[in-house]
Amino acid sequence: MSEPIKFYFDFSSPYGYFAALKIDELAASFGRQVEWHPMMLGAAMKVTGAKPLAEIELKGDYCKNDWDRLARYMEVPWTLPAVFPIGTLAASRAFYWLDDQDDALAKRFALAAFNVYFGQGRDITPAETVAEFAEPLGVDRDAKF
Fold first, then answer.
1. How far apart are CA 93 and CA 102, in angstroms?
2. Contacts of 20 by beta carbon, 8 Å cutoff, 6+ apart
3. In sequence order, which residues have a C-beta less than 8 Å from that of residue 21 and are 6 or more positions away?
4. Residue 35 forms beta bridges with which residues?
5. Measured distance CA(56)–CA(50) in Å, rounded
6. Smallest Cα–Cα separation from 112: which of 84, 128, 89, 135?
7. Beta-carbon count within 10 A of 104 CB
8. For the CA atoms of 50, 117, 86, 88, what is the dihedral angle to 10 degrees?
9. Alpha-carbon torsion 94, 9, 113, 139, what sign?
10. How open is the CA angle 33-38-41, to the nearest 5 degrees?
11. Which domains are assigned to the chain?
C-alpha cells in the first residue's frame, strides 16, 4: 500500500476547513489513507514574520471572496467568524489526545471543530467550547485534553 498523505492544517484556516471536507474522499479514490496533523499556524507565522492572508491588503479581500465561492461550489455551510483568526491550542490538544485513542474519532472531532467554527461561526478557542462539541461524539465532557 502507498504511503499515507500527511494533511497538516490549522483549525483557524478556511482553506484547512475546505480541504478537510474532501481530503479523505480524494485520497481513497487513489487508494491512499490520510494522516491528519493539526498545527499552530499562528506560531509558525510569528517565527517567519508572515501575516494571515485575511490581513494582507488585496489578498485579504480576494481570499474572503474565494472562501465564499468555495463554500457555494462545495455546497457546505460557511461563515467567516466574527473572531478570526483564533488560537487553536485547545482544539489541537483535544485532537491529539483523541488521535492517540482512535484516529477515526479524532477525524470526526476535527470535522466537528471546523463546522462549529466555520459552519456556525462560533469561537472554538475556549476548552469549554471544545468539550461541548466533542461530547456528542462520545467524548467525556470532563476529559482533560
1. 14
2. 7, 9, 36, 110, 111, 114
3. 74, 76, 111, 114
4. 6
5. 10
6. 135
7. 9
8. -100
9. negative
10. 135
11. 5-137 (3.40.30.10)
DSSP state letters, 41-90: HHHHHHHHT---GGGSTTHHHHHHHHHHHHHHHHT------SS-S---HH
- Tell me the pLDDT band of 52, cut-offs 50, 70 and 90: confident
Determine the residue type at 49. G
Q: How far apart are CA 49 and CA 62, in angstroms?
A: 21
**Rounded to an integer, what distance in angstroms lies between the CA atom of residue 128 and that of residue 73?**
33
**pLDDT (tens digit per residue) in 68-125:** 999 999 999 999 999 999 999 999 999 999 999 999 999 999 999 999 999 999 999 9
The 3-state DSSP class for residue 108 equals helix
Q: What are the distances in angstroms from CA 103 to CA 32, 36, 54, 76?
A: 15, 9, 31, 24
C-alpha cell at 134: 466533542
Interval 22-32: pLDDT, tens: 999 999 999 99
Instruction: Give the position of cell 485575511.
Output: 54
